């Protein structure tokens, strides 16, 4: 029987809603942006009511465009962003503090000085950083007048964006989150699958303000009957996951050793490591890939690269070597190789596995014969080398090989990049037809709980491959390229930044 699932993909700069049919095809689609609020350098906020308004507007528009009865709603959301609101009135006590916001860096310094680093890593899989929700929540409790007292009285609730949306969709009936979002708060014990008392105590966070943690696929509640959501009244909210984990699920990376890499402005790689958690991650993050049942989780390693698609933008907007992003492929394909040119895009330092915030960008191997096309190629290749470094570190930390890498994101459109990536990793790369993997993952989670799909095998069959990139570079040549890249990286490290 035909059925339709609505995915709400609540991202950092826009909200999207997509209706999928039970074949995984898009039947309705809408997207709206909302304000990015920068009160001070390094601070980033969103208005939770604007997020909510954008979500209902897109949800209604997508549902109307599809014109079908929706069986279930799934949520994928920007992670770590922190919302605090009044239990009775539903009014947020402040703007949401966005994951990018650095205002709590000093609180993190204090936690490190208090000797909490190892404890945080052992329990949460994370490294102490302003990125995660815990210190953002503490900041709100400490700085918004009266909120700490109201929280102690039980009048205030905390949630990541998924919780906020579930609460709003259910008309304030359900205060819940899923395992993957809880795993990004830096307050959740990802092994015992419960909020960690010691960390809540250390951060002075009243535990009764935290949401109930539920499986990523399961009925959270039903949409309330209200004027703004009439078309969706009664529909079960049946899935939720953080955006990167939703994409992993949407790419059907269900088994240990399967990984996805999103080539956007930066790159996000997530590798499924199965039900047995790996604790020693060598500064990569350990997180929950997904929890389909109460008390059970699958784990993942996660790592990111700061500069990926952004280097293509730099080539276009600053160096002006290309007129548009897709032109990079045409230019790069006009020469047979990089002509000996290597580019290390350490614009903001280097992450895994170098961890050098003083590294800076460098371009090596230039001769009088260097052409624009060689530089374009070196820039594309730099993305593939960085991903190779990252995935090699992940394979080492997990003790297992990545046997399938599934790709998505804007820059995965580059065939030159994808082929070179397959050559460097010596792994097949699989690019799907539908690169809206985040929304698809949310739909999969919800549809699974609502009986639209029976099991993961059925979901895996819905994923349609656009193209497989098979490694075809001679091993000696591959090793010579990679060794030369590592030499170039060595020259970019530890630059004296003035
Ligand atoms: P984000 O979600 O991080 O904003 P996207 O997934 O939309 O990013 O990807 C945008 C990036 O993809 C841009 O940095 C752009 O340079 C790159 N990009 C888009 N199209 C192409 C293309 N055809 N070839 C190479 N890179 C591309």
Overview of the structural elements:
The protein is an alpha+beta fold. The chain has a domain at 4-251: 2-Layer Sandwich (Nucleotidyltransferase, domain 5). Helices cover 35% and strands 24% of the residues. The chain has 16 helices and 23 strands. It has helices spanning 48-66, 105-113, 117-124, 133-143, 147-152, 161-169, 179-182, 197-202, 243-250, 309-317, 327-333, 372-398, 415-425, 437-449, 456-462, 475-492; strands at residues 4-10, 14-21, 26-33, 45-46, 70-77, 82-86, 96-97, 156-160, 176-178, 188-189, 194-195, 212-214, 217-222, 236-242, 258-263, 267-274, 285-293, 296-305, 342-344, 362-364, 404-408, 429-432, 465-469. Strands 17-18-16-15-21-22-23 form a 7-stranded mixed β-sheet. A hairpin with a 3-residue loop joins β15 (258-263) and β16 (267-274). α10 (309-317) packs antiparallel against α12 (372-398), α11 packs across α12 and α12 packs across α13. The longest helix is centred in the C-terminal third of the chain and has 27 residues, at 372-398. The N and C termini lie far apart (65 Å). 52% of the residues are buried. The structure holds adenosine-5'-diphosphate. Adenosine-5'-diphosphate is lined by residues 264-265, 309-310, 312-313, 325-326, 328-329, 409-411, 413-414.
